[in-house]
Write a structure and sequence with these properties.
Layout (H helix, E strand, L loop, with lengths): L5 H8 L4 E6 L5 E6 L2 E3 L2 E7 L3 H8 L2 E6 L8 E12 L4 H11 L14 E14 L1
Antiparallel strand pairs: 1-2, 1-5, 3-4, 4-7, 5-6, 6-7
């Protein structure tokens, strides 16, 4: 496994948006903007079962995550790796991310839906940090 530099960890711990790129069935890229968290050197994001990125990752777990600070866009972190999809029945990660990014106590976007939350855990195989 590849380790993240301390400055890259600090960037992931800040409320900066990330772009996730997955691979479509035809080999073309599919991108999504997500909120991210970190667990050691793993990058985590929450999504919903049945979304394109989830379906793509179940078929091909390779992905790339790009994060940069809005006030310094030439500083960035790219993490390439393989995704592991974990069920999150209590939606604990999306609630923690809502707190981090918006200050809200919990995420309310799934209220009144039958959305099934999952956590995508990205285990880095390649890290490119430009600080």
């Amino acid at each position: 496994m590849t380790s993240l530099p301390d400055a890259a960890k600090a960037l992931l711990d800040a409320p900066e948006f990330a772009t996730v790129a997955t691979i479509e069935a035809d080999g073309s890229p599919q991108t999504s903007v997500v909120w991210v968290a970190r667990d050691g050197d793993d990058v985590l994001f929450s999504t919903i079962h049945g979304r394109r990125k989830t379906d793509n990752l179940q078929r091909d777990p390779r992905l790339s995550v790009l994060v940069y600070p809005r006030d310094a866009p030439y500083q960035y972190l790219e993490v390439r790796g393989e995704a592991a999809i974990e069920e999150d029945p209590s939606a604990s990660l999306i609630h923690a991310l809502a707190q981090k990014y918006t200050g809200a106590e919990r995420y309310t976007g799934d209220d009144g839906t039958d959305n099934r939350r999952v956590v995508v855990r990205v285990r880095p195989t390649r890290v490119h940090w430009r600080g």
